[in-house]
Amino acid sequence: MKQARPTLQGVSPPLRPPDPLRRPPSASASPSRTAPALPSVKQYSPIQALAVQESRELYTSPGRNCIHMELDLSDQAELRYRTGDHLAVYPTNPGHEVQFLLKALGLEQRAETPLLIQALEEGEPIKIPSPTSSLALFRHYLEVSAPVSRETVGALARFSPSPEVASRLTTLGKDKQASLAALVLSGPTPPSYVVETLPTTQPRCYSISSSSAVSARKIAITVGADNSPLQADPTKAIRGVTASYLYALGNSLSGDASQLEVGPGAPAMPSRILGHKVFAYIRRSNFKLPTLDTTPLVMIGAGTGMAPFRGFTLERARLKAVGKHIGRMILFFGCRSPDQDSLYREELASVAKELDGLLEIVPAFSRSNSHPKAYVEMKKDVCELLQSGANMYICGRMSMARAVSNVVEESMKQQNGWAESARKGSKWLEDVWG
């Protein structure tokens, strides 16, 4: 039988009050969204509670929602961001999932009792703050909605008091959507094993969609929340915990109590929504504008991959407004429909007008009947820009970035060694995920 290393021990009276929102020193070490094509960047700001200043819906559809959210840095003097950085946001787990797990473990009446987390083996690192409480653990520090591995199901089965319970656990474990709480309900499980088994909550990194030159004390992010039903069971949907949390937070800010659900079937809003603050840190990125403002830019994005390019164009518009010379920009933006998910369309049109021909926007609508399909293809003038020293930026899903890279390399194949040279010289930068 697998032995759980950490143990939970109630402390009464507590040695010191548990802080429900402390992070262990390594909490910011593994953001869930990374940019593999960029050099490793290991610069992080402190984790702070940032007030949500504004949240507005960019579009909504049966399968997906997208919001623009702005967070206030005015009372966080030590926080500084640069255009192109990431904001790493810690989510709060859905309230119904937390309560379900507390009930399954028999901890409902002791949810806020202070706990010490101790290791059975000397020197064994503890992945969560201590002292804490069961409620804080499952609400903030552990991914209670994480998929359950076969190894975990097997270990839980070994805790079972009878072969019948073990068989029931094994059967339930075949359901890829089964939560750990559902498995725990099927048989007695030590809370210490649950703490050891659940992964720690990791932040979700979002490309910052504002410009530090335009709004130094305000950060904007663009958040997409996928609500598409599962093919295997159309009555269910898998929603990202962080995106759903931010979406609910934004709706609570606007007073829309009808949109407070976080996760499928959630009957209650998550904690911390009423405070309208999120815990986050700034993650440095090499996805930056060139040092020379006159360097031309070729920007290619799809969906929420538009986020950093909003910041880029706003910054260049500000530079031009104060009398600086800026280089020409071409923005290729892929989306499904001009009337549905063409993010920041009016704002971009206004910026393009201000830039007076220095910004060309080329939309690629994949599902429009009134527009021909215009998948991203390099035009002659784009190749000329790249040949003359333009920087190229790609932001979006990895599959999109791979397809675009193939098109670019094919278009530039007559320029021997261009792609390798551009990447090495930081003239070709990618911010990709998935």
TrEMBL record:
<dbReference type="InterPro" id="IPR017927">
    <property type="entry name" value="FAD-bd_FR_type"/>
</dbReference>
<feature type="region of interest" description="Disordered">
    <location>
        <begin position="1"/>
        <end position="40"/>
    </location>
</feature>
<dbReference type="InterPro" id="IPR001433">
    <property type="entry name" value="OxRdtase_FAD/NAD-bd"/>
</dbReference>
<dbReference type="GO" id="GO:0005829">
    <property type="term" value="C:cytosol"/>
</dbReference>
<dbReference type="Pfam" id="PF00175">
    <property type="entry name" value="NAD_binding_1"/>
</dbReference>
<dbReference type="InterPro" id="IPR003097">
    <property type="entry name" value="CysJ-like_FAD-binding"/>
</dbReference>
<feature type="compositionally biased region" description="Low complexity">
    <location>
        <begin position="24"/>
        <end position="40"/>
    </location>
</feature>
<keyword id="KW-0560">Oxidoreductase</keyword>
<dbReference type="InterPro" id="IPR017938">
    <property type="entry name" value="Riboflavin_synthase-like_b-brl"/>
</dbReference>
<dbReference type="GO" id="GO:0003958">
    <property type="term" value="F:NADPH-hemoprotein reductase activity"/>
</dbReference>
<dbReference type="GO" id="GO:0010181">
    <property type="term" value="F:FMN binding"/>
</dbReference>
<dbReference type="InterPro" id="IPR039261">
    <property type="entry name" value="FNR_nucleotide-bd"/>
</dbReference>
<protein>
    <recommendedName>
        <fullName>FAD-binding FR-type domain-containing protein</fullName>
    </recommendedName>
</protein>
<dbReference type="InterPro" id="IPR023173">
    <property type="entry name" value="NADPH_Cyt_P450_Rdtase_alpha"/>
</dbReference>
<keyword id="KW-0274">FAD</keyword>
<keyword id="KW-0285">Flavoprotein</keyword>
<dbReference type="GO" id="GO:0050660">
    <property type="term" value="F:flavin adenine dinucleotide binding"/>
</dbReference>
<dbReference type="InterPro" id="IPR001709">
    <property type="entry name" value="Flavoprot_Pyr_Nucl_cyt_Rdtase"/>
</dbReference>
<feature type="domain" description="FAD-binding FR-type">
    <location>
        <begin position="45"/>
        <end position="290"/>
    </location>
</feature>
<dbReference type="Pfam" id="PF00667">
    <property type="entry name" value="FAD_binding_1"/>
</dbReference>
